[in-house]
TrEMBL record:
Lineage, opening ranks: Bacteria, Bacillati, Actinomycetota, Actinomycetes, Pseudonocardiales
Annotated ranges, domain Carboxymuconolactone decarboxylase-like: 48-124
Pfam families: CMD
Keyword annotations from UniProtKB, A to Z: Oxidoreductase, Peroxidase
GO MF annotation: an example: peroxiredoxin activity
Highest taxon in the source lineage: Bacteria
Stated name of the protein: AhpD family alkylhydroperoxidase
Species annotation: Pseudonocardia endophytica
Amino acid sequence: MARIPAVTEEQAGPVGKLVYRFAKRRFGSMPEPFAVALHHTGVFWTSMIAELGWERAATRLPASVRELAVYRTATVVGCSWCVDFGTMLQRLEGLDVERLAHIDEYATSPLYSDDERRAIAYADAMTATPMTVTDAQVADLERAFGKAGVVELTTMIAVENHRARANHALGITDQGFDAACRIRLDTPSGAGRTPPTE
């Protein structure tokens, strides 16, 4: 259970009820981060507008490159909700979600392309505290993806850090969107992390 309870459909008011209906049609149920954010309608609507903007703007990179970097960020932060929801989105996009179970071996696994390895390594470097991004790494990414691609990749990793850290702090855990790929906190990317208190 989240540390801040979700606003229920009954409590959401007329506009919030429309959001519930839309979310249920699109995702099958209301994503809990949305329902928790409804406690602060300004933050909720700002987040919704931003999310729609990111979705429309993120078009320069191949979907697999972008989504693997976002997924990796979620696993490093330890956000089981993001892993769950992100796996569902990748499945709906027709991406290979079976290989996500091997993401900790991305550097050597034949399941990942060189471009995907670059993006995942960049997600690791950006999500580390302190960050470990280097000039050489960004130059290599620019050669692979161009300037616009690097900006998109950087932005989407940063956005996922925001989402994952907020959800993790609020105790929002996986919701069953894609239970086949739950975060495993005992893997290297999740080592030493404690799941949020239920």
